[in-house]
TrEMBL record:
Listed InterPro entries: MurB, MurB_C, MurB_C_sf
Domain UDP-N-acetylenolpyruvoylglucosamine reductase C-terminal: start-end pairs: 14-79
Necessary cofactors: FAD
PANTHER family noted in UniProt: UDP-N-ACETYLENOLPYRUVOYLGLUCOSAMINE REDUCTASE
Organism, as annotated: Psychrosphaera algicola
Entry protein name: UDP-N-acetylenolpyruvoylglucosamine reductase
Length: 108
């Protein structure tokens, strides 16, 4: 199991390796899938996936890894749109790019 030393007495385990070893590359729930080549990437395969499916896949991945290895994964969420990465952490008084996109589409 690949370990990366963080500091004295603490190490990180490669989550991608755990997901891969759990056989989850390519796992799909509706249109949301674990990427075939990069286990840390979840993709919307046909642009028809929804948040509910994304959350279900994340839960499935975390539960499967925990069942197999007894290790609880934590998420580091980054979202990408057609123009690249979206800033989800706007400064006080500003809209995030994600909110701005929703507003532009009238789906707020």
């Amino acid at each position: 199991m690949p370990l990366y030393k963080v500091n004295d007495g603490e190490s990180k385990i490669a989550a991608g390796w755990l997901i891969d070893q759990a056989g989850l590359k390519g796992k799909t729930i509706n249109d949301i899938a674990v990427h075939q080549n990069q286990a840390l990437v979840l993709i919307n395969t046909n642009n028809n996936g929804c948040g509910k499916d994304l959350v279900a896949l994340v839960d499935e991945v975390c539960n499967t890894v925990f069942a197999k290895f007894g290790i609880e994964l934590s998420t580091e969420v980054r979202c990408f749109g057609h123009e690249g990465e979206l800033n989800l952490l706007a400064k006080k008084g500003e809209e995030s790019e994600l909110t701005a996109v929703k507003n532009a589409k009238g789906t707020r």
